[in-house]
Design goal:
By secondary structure, the protein is α+β, with helices and mostly antiparallel strands. The protein is built from two helices and two strands; from the N terminus they run βαβα. Helices cover about 35% and strands about 10% of the residues. Strand 1, helix 1 and strand 2 form a beta-alpha-beta unit. Helix 1 runs parallel beside helix 2. It is elongated and about 40 Å long. The relative contact order is 0.23.
């Protein structure tokens, strides 16, 4: 298993985050010994939190809007056996 896979938007654009997510899931899917991979966090931290911008969705301030990585995650996870 791979736990806490993630790329934060504080160091890359939202589009780059989606591309990185797609890439890491493709790489992991190529290894049959990997039976599970978990994205680090579903949504961003709230404004008074740690400032985590690794979510597939925004925080309450954005109405939990899906980030580009949300669609990439749906595609990548649907492609897994």
């Amino acid at each position: 298993w791979y736990t806490e896979v993630g790329y934060g938007r504080h160091v890359m654009s939202a589009e780059d985050q989606a591309e990185s997510l797609t890439h890491v899931y493709q790489v992991l899917a190529a290894h049959p010994e990997v039976t599970a991979a978990f994205w680090y966090t579903y949504r961003d931290d709230e404004a008074d939190g740690e400032g985590n911008l690794m979510g597939l969705r925004g925080n309450q301030a954005s109405g939990f809007q899906p980030q580009p990585a949300y669609a990439a995650y749906q595609q990548a996870s649907a492609a897994l056996p």
